[in-house]
Fold each of these.
Amino acid sequence: MDYSQMGLFIGIALTVGAVVLHFTRGTPWRASEDISKEVLEHRAKSVPETDFPEPMNRSIGGGGAVAAVGGAEGGAELEGGEAAEAEPGPGDIPEDEIEYYEVEFVKEGETIEVANNKPLLDQGEDQGWDLPYACREGSCVSCAGKVSGDANELVEHDNQQMLDENEMSDGYVLTCVAYPRGEFSIETNEAP
Ligand code: FES
């Protein structure tokens, strides 16, 4: 066999080999087993339960389940219509039960009649006075003032979060959420 025959033979052999390889089916692809459920179940056992609803379902039977239960309960309550109603606040006084008190605003130099269904700050502003305030929801002390007596008795706060019992006993009030419950004088812009 000369070189040209040998070359031809090798060429044919390679071609046949390539064609055979091309048509031979390899090992078929199989998806690996889905173990995600198993992993989640294992994780559910190792992650402690939370008793608050989580934004993401961290584990099977975890926060997501609690949130779902809470949501169902919440829905039931809402359907009942009672839980959806807000608690009446100190300003929720029916028209025919509104009372008025004489309150002296010492620094403003005037005594005015204030209603018991409106915060002192609002009623002072109704007079055109530029009284201090910031949050208007009882969570800073910008609007603080001092009344002439025990503020626990003279005003009713609507959810104030800044003054303790002693400070209120000393007469300090947060005028933005303080509803008058008696006659007194008040010094505005006085913080404990
Ligand atoms: S303005 Fe913040 S507590 Fe009254």
Amino acid sequence: MWSSRPFMWELCVFLLSSMLLRLATAYSKSYVMEDYCDDLIDLEYNGLSMVHVRLTELGIYRPHMSCTFAVRAPPMHRLTLVMEWIDIAEGRFGYCSDYLAVLEGDLNKTYYTDNMDAKLCGQKKPAAITSSRRGLTLHFDSNQIEEGAGFSAVFTSFHEGSCQTGEFSCENGRCIDQRLKCDKYDNCGDFSDDCLLTVGDVVAAVIITSIVFLLIVGGAVLYCYRDKIKFRKKCPVIGANPDGVYHPTTEPAGKDDGATEQLTAV
Ligand SMILES: [Ca+2]
């Protein structure tokens, strides 16, 4: 039991340092779209493999909003766009009063393609969207009538062919950054990089288990120590007085005095 403690400690240190290293080398970044209107996020320039974007941090988006946000993948790469959730006000008769448009290309040259819905609204998530080139652009527009919460989406850079070291091979044949595996986001577009537990979940579980283990061991040590003290009190050392304190044996006070008296009489 005691010999497992160093191992647990080393495992905790390893997992924590791995987690800190992952955090130190950022490969993903979150953006609030309304703070980056008309901006282009170049993944290669920023050293990113994934971009998480949310329309607004508020509970509801602003009326009369018009905002464009673009992402560009590194050379020889394309983009997967996965909508996490969407809540955009629908008009009557299936007409989108507010809408999100997903367009091919970056800010300078955008266009609709057949594999994308022209305008997204309502609360139904579309299937994963794949760019045919390096760029994808989001354009959001709202009127003054009614608003929703907006949307949250994930852009992921990928390439096809042979995956290199440090890349994860998706079941759909795409290669993505290995670090995107088990990060709770569907980066492959087919969920094949998903896991039941994320890296953060595993680290948290190990830390909690270690704390519980140390508490149990510490409690057991304290319990035994307390029992040891009780035992000593119940079973005093042989030769000790009932008060538990040992006193050196001394002759009765009057014995020496009597001997002295006899010698004096002689
Ligand atoms: Ca993922």
